[in-house]
Specification:
The protein has nine helices and six strands; from the N terminus they run E-E-H-E-H-E-H-H-H-H-E-H-E-H-H. The protein has 229 residues and is an alpha/beta fold. The chain has a six-stranded parallel β-sheet, with helices on both faces. Helix 1 packs across helix 2, helix 3 packs across helix 4 and helix 3 runs antiparallel to helix 5.
Length: 229
């Protein structure tokens, strides 16, 4: 796997630069920002991002970025040899028998985003940081107004469980057990696609790759070097 290229996709409101920190610092990674595209739908963003990806590749996606990564792997399986999802899954909102973000909490989140974005931004950054005091604020985009509504809609409604179910790509999930943004359950994910590897990291939050640097790097390096499916 030494010749594979590594591409990274960030989460809601963040620049790709955040994924060049922490566990991925020093690695040659190509950050894929998706906020300047004219078509801010799941299909539009995924197709635009895919044009930058050369095959074969390793795709590392965080939070909302995982939705686009799964879509890309579904549309272009020849481009994605391995998929690494950090605090992410095919549907971010909880459903019957499926863990995720509480739907009511998401409705409150979106309402606040439209009514008082500065307040929402600070609350969101605090949750992303929890339980550490690591500051991710500098990586949050200053001008997010144009993308707020379409990306919030994707955040709340995206459901790629069918695409995820049939992926043949090797998939690694790294879950922080103190994640205050997204509650995840290994069994929920494995019921959809049994050919995945899930690693839960104690005391890690939504951005565990910034706080548990050595452990995340070790998990990622081992997955890249090995074959699980």
């Amino acid at each position: 796997m030494k010749n594979e290229l590594i591409y990274t996709i960030p989460g809601w409101g963040f620049s790709a630069g955040i994924l060049k920190q922490g566990a991925l610092a020093g690695k040659t990674c190509f950050g894929l920002d998706y906020l300047d595209y004219s078509d801010l739908s799941i299909d539009g963003i995924s197709l635009d991002l895919s044009t930058a990806i050369k095959q074969p590749s390793i795709l590392i996606a965080w939070s909302l970025g995982g939705v686009f990564a799964i879509k890309i792997a579904s549309l272009f399986p020849e481009k994605v040899k391995k998929l690494i999802l950090l605090a992410s899954q095919p549907r971010l909102i909880a459903d019957t028998g499926y863990s995720g973000i509480d739907p009511q909490a998401m409705n409150i989140f979106i309402e606040l985003a439209y009514q008082d974005f500065p307040r929402l931004k600070q609350q969101f950054i605090n949750k992303v940081n929890f339980p550490s005091k690591n500051d991710v604020g500098p990586f949050f985009l200053d001008d997010f107004s144009k993308q707020l509504k379409p990306l919030s809609k994707i955040l709340a409604t995206a459901d790629l469980r069918d695409e995820y179910r049939y992926l043949k790509t090797e998939i690694l999930h790294i879950i922080g057990d103190k994640d205050a943004v997204l509650k995840q359950d290994e069994q929920s994910l494995c019921k959809i696609n049994s050919n995945i590897k899930v690693v839960r990291v104690a005391n890690a939050g939504h951005c565990g790759f910034l706080t548990h640097t050595l452990l995340y790097r070790s998990i990622i390096d081992e997955f890249i070097a090995s074959k699980y499916v």
